[in-house]
Specification:
The complex is a heterodimer. By secondary structure, chain A is mainly alpha-helical. Chain A is built from three helices and two strands, in the order E-H-H-E-H. In chain A, helix 1 runs antiparallel to helix 2. The longest helix of chain A is centred in the N-terminal third of the chain and has 27 residues. In chain B, helix 6 crosses helix 7 and helix 11 packs across helix 12. The radius of gyration of chain B is 23 Å and the shape is globular. The chains are: A mainly alpha, B mainly alpha.
């Protein structure tokens, strides 16, 4: 398995992240849940006659609906991100490499996870890499 | 363009090194600077006063404040609105100008968002204290209860509860998500064990892999796109807290945009107020250049003009409108007991910021700083005149009254300033005040 490590987003992001769609879903769920809760509270659970005004006074539900939609989308985004990239992961074998210390300063590191050391080394040596480091047992 | 937003000669390596040294202080010679301890000492002194004030409030009750009939909303609501408006600056800069692809926001967003968090924390305290029985604050939540009661969803005050809840939570998430790569940077650079553990746990294992970056940018972009309308909605709803009431001077459809303008003005003012001294103190001049101060000065001027428009509309709609009580109240505002508050608002929010039309003034940082301090005082006075002079002159002449804040209200205000400064100083010391990962992209894109 090959993975690159960089200190910032390199160029275009390779396309296709599902997470914005997930955030849309979270927003819709938050908004519909919020609106539904208010409809249920004011018409079924606790109807309150104020001067004969309608119980289903939907325009006044919009602000809380909007706030809960935003909150739902934000939570979906951050939870979805951590699930998608499999975080938190406090220890990873790549942490043993000294080169990884410089990734967040602007260095570029290519990690090859392979059972076959010789083949991985041979593959890397075909490119002009600045250095090769072997870690792990 | 990049020549103006970052000094030539800066590289991702030098930038990372500089910011990490300020935060991590790796050598024994690099003590936390004296100014930081002095400021923290002052902040803690103010905070201690606030703690005493809150303790006495919990013991003795709301009677220790000057609020009474007819002015039942006093310092607590005033300070809540003031702080939440101050909080807006970070969100405007980091979310709105991210969407506008403004290149200058990159070096300001961390600082501005940190100010947002601290100010929102202070704002959130006041409504809970004003409840009178703060231990029952959770009654604001719609939750299943034995009496089958629900919150009144038609009330702007309940909308406000949802707005503040969403705003505080979303601001924390947005700030933390933007911080992840920088926490990872600190974890790699840290030399002391507690630092490696502290930043390592907070970074949650972010390592900058292609997979982590690929999903990072889209999520951050959508978050910014959500935060921008969220901050507008929060201040609109704060405006509706007032517009929804039938009190003189409040019942106006212009209040939601009026409060958004006011939020922008105080938000940009607090960012300038913090940036001007912190730039040399943290050695950030190569990344926060004079040009940034210039841009923020222009934004402050723009916000001031928006607020001026709202003030003019306030006068116009009062005297063009049919309500005699509104006109009586406004005359009281102009030359009654609280007239200095009104004219102070006009001077500090509208007149003095006009100096920023001149580039020479925008380049003089002590003058800009003084104008910003004036704006923050002016915004506080504006809330005083909106809340107090309206409530003091209700429709019914027999119900007129006045309001004098007590020592406990002043000490509580001072206490939240102490809380704000304490929280902000801790963030300045332990969190990088420059978004390093985003700055790397700016520096690498340079031709």
């Amino acid at each position: 398995m090959v993975e690159t490590y960089t200190g910032t987003q390199a160029g275009d992001n390779g396309g296709g992240s599902i997470l914005p769609v997930l955030m849309l879903g979270g927003g819709v769920a938050g908004g519909m849940g919020g609106f539904g809760m208010q409809v249920y509270a004011t018409t079924i659970s606790y109807p309150l006659d104020v001067g004969g005004r309608p119980n289903l006074s939907w325009p006044s539900y919009i602000p809380a609906t909007f706030e809960l939609a935003v909150l739902g989308a934000m939570l979906a985004g951050i939870i979805g991100y951590f699930v998608t990239v499999r975080l938190p992961r406090l220890y990873d074998p790549v942490d043993e490499s000294a080169a990884m210390r410089d990734v967040m300063k602007g260095a570029h590191v290519l990690v090859v996870r392979s059972g076959d050391r010789a083949r991985a080394r041979q593959m890397l040596s075909r490119y002009e890499v600045l250095g090769i480091e072997e870690i792990g047992p | 363009m990049t020549g103006r937003i970052v000094h030539p000669g800066e590289t991702p390596w030098s930038m990372t090194e500089r910011v990490c040294v300020t935060t991590l202080r790796p050598d024994a010679g690099l003590w936390t600077p004296l100014w930081w301890w002095l400021c923290l000492g002052m902040a803690l002194a103010l905070l201690a006063g606030g703690v005493v004030s809150v303790a006495w409030l919990f013991y003795a009750g709301l009677g220790i404040w000057g609020i009474d009939w007819p002015v039942a909303w006093g310092f607590d609501i005033l300070n809540y609105v003031w702080w939440i408006a101050i909080a807006s600056g970070g969100t405007f800069i980091s979310a709105l100008f991210f969407l506008l692809r403004a290149p200058w926001r990159t070096s300001l967003n961390r600082l501005a968002e940190s100010l947002t968090l601290c100010a929102a924390l202070c704002a959130a305290i006041f409504p809970i204290l004003h409840l009178g029985r703060p231990q029952f604050f959770y009654w604001l939540f719609p939750y299943p209860n034995t009496m089958g009661l629900w919150a009144q969803f038609r009330s702007p005050l309940v909308w406000d509860f949802f707005a503040i809840l969403a705003y505080v939570l979303c601001s924390v998430l947005f700030w933390y998500f933007g911080l992840l790569p920088d926490l990872a940077t600190l974890r790699e650079r840290a030399q002391r064990r507690w630092q490696r553990v502290f930043y390592g746990v907070l970074a949650l294992g972010f390592r900058g892999s292609a997979r982590q970056w690929r999903h990072y940018q889209p999520v951050y972009g959508v978050m910014a796109a959500l935060m921008a309308p969220l901050v507008v909605s929060v201040h609109s709803i704060v405006g509706m807290d007032f517009a929804g009431g039938a009190a003189t001077g409040w019942h106006s459809t212009q209040f939601p945009p009026f409060f958004v303008f006011g939020a922008g003005l105080s938000g940009f003012a607090i960012v300038l107020l913090a940036v001007i001294p912190l730039r040399p103190a943290l050695g950030l001049q190569p990344y926060i250049t004079d040009w940034h101060i210039d841009v923020l000065g222009r934004l402050l001027l723009t916000a001031s003009l928006c607020v001026a428009y709202a003030y003019v509309m306030d006068v116009f709609s009062t005297f063009y409108g049919p309500d005699q009580a509104d006109r009586t109240m406004f005359a009281f505002r102009l030359h009654g007991l609280y007239a200095p508050v009104y004219w102070g608002t006009i001077m500090l929010n509208i007149v003095f910021p006009q100096l920023l039309w001149w580039r020479g003034v925008r380049m003089k940082q002590p003058v800009v700083w003084a104008i910003c301090l004036g704006v923050l005082v002016g915004m506080w006075l504006e809330r005083f005149q909106i809340i107090v002079s309206s409530l003091a002159r209700t429709q019914l002449q027999s119900a007129w009254g006045q309001y004098t804040p007590t020592l406990w209200e002043w000490s509580l205000l001072a206490g939240t300033i102490g809380l704000f400064l304490t929280a902000f100083l801790l963030l300045v010391r332990f969190i990088p005040m420059l978004a390093m990962a985003e700055m790397r992209a700016v520096l690498e894109d340079r031709p």
